[in-house]
Amino acid sequence: MQLEQTELLKKFSELVVEKNKAHNLTSAKTPEEFFRKHIGDCIGAYRAAENSLQKSIVDCGSGAGLPSVVWSIINPKLEIHSIDSNQKKIAFQKHIKRSLGLINLYPTASRIQDFCPKKESTAIFKAFSSIKNGAQSLNQQALFKNLIFLKKDDEKTKEEITEASSLLYDYKRHEYTANKEKMLVVELYDSKNSNN
């Protein structure tokens, strides 16, 4: 990763912690803790998922901007739509976009059921309720090539994959490690995209 990108990620960490009291963005108490816990996880997930991503990404329920802000910094060629129904969190992300000059990031206040990207996209879910709920929450008219869930590699995630199996045509597992924990990118294809 380039020095400039690292500096932007550090600045993002500082802004999250600085604005945390007003927006309830993270449990991290310091920029260093946020960087270590959350930025590191998002970078690991990006590397694990990189070859599966479309050029257009929709981050569903993006909160403080994880992974959307991080991914927009580490790959400026991606077009990233960061969707959250919480107006305050989207206002914060718009502040981040301006402060860091992220021209490829599009924070949007919307329910994900109502958001329909204009081109074939990858939907990303991090810290979202369950795989089944995530898959069912998307706009059925939207052009999603695949759905990606960032999860811990544990029994709960295995149960979620089983619970969602009736909705899925196929899925792939992309493993990575973050903060000494086994993590997992679960890549799903729904029945509409069964040519994968």
Please outline the helices and strands.
Layout: H1 3-23, H2 31-49, E1 56-60, H3 68-74, E2 79-84, H4 87-100, E3 105-109, E4 121-126, H5 131-137, E5 144-152, H6 155-163, E6 168-178, E7 181-190
Parallel strand pairs: 1-2, 1-4, 2-3, 4-5
Antiparallel strand pairs: 5-7, 6-7
Helix pairs in contact: 1-2, 1-3, 1-4
Structure at a glance:
It is built from 6 helices and 7 strands. With 196 residues, the chain is an alpha/beta fold.
Strand content: 25-35%
The rounded Rg comes to 16 Å
Query: Which stretches are poorly predicted, pLDDT < 50 over at least 5 residues?
Result: none
Distance between the termini: 31 Å
> How would you state the average pLDDT, rounded?
92
Q: Could you give a short account of the major beta sheet?
A: 7 strands, mixed
Task: List the strand order in the largest sheet.
Answer: 3-2-1-4-5-7-6
Which word captures the global form?
globular
How many beta strands in the DSSP annotation? 7
Helix/strand-derived class? alpha/beta
Q: How much helicity do the residues have? A: 25-40%
- Count of discrete alpha- or pi-helical segments spanning 4 or more residues: 6
SSE topology string: HHEHEHEEHEHEE
The oligomeric state is: single chain
